[in-house]
Predict the structure.
Amino acid sequence: MVRNILLNELESIQFKNSKDTHGQKNLCTYGSRGIRGEAADGYPSVINLALPVIRQGKKEGRYWNLVKIQTLFTLMSQVEDGNILSRCRREGLKEVQKLSREFLLAGGAYSQGAMEELIKLDTYFIHKNYSSGGCADLLAASVFLSEIEDAWAGK
């Protein structure tokens, strides 16, 4: 519904080299389309990454908080999070993605010792000023859509 508006806005920001917000700075500096691009593309991170993890976790009867952690790290491993990008540049983003992939490959939130690993990652991320706020927003949207799916299915 608003795809063309968002695409025109992104083009306008690039053309003007506007840097009033972090999202605008990320677009002009790194070519990152941020949440505007995500919305214009139909939220592929929510549809293709997050919702499948949530559905699988629910199907397996996983503890809901662990499902959300697993989903967050799935997003963090692949999404170009504008919050991290604006705070810590491309290098910080790549490190967060790498550490998130490693966490998932080791079993993620469902593995033995996951909480201890999460505490270590949290401490390290705080030290490095890494905050995956964009991924957290996508997680919230994913949880919302998952709840709507469940309501429609009568669960």
About this structure: Residues 82-105 form the longest helix (24 residues). The chain is about 75% helix and 0% strand.
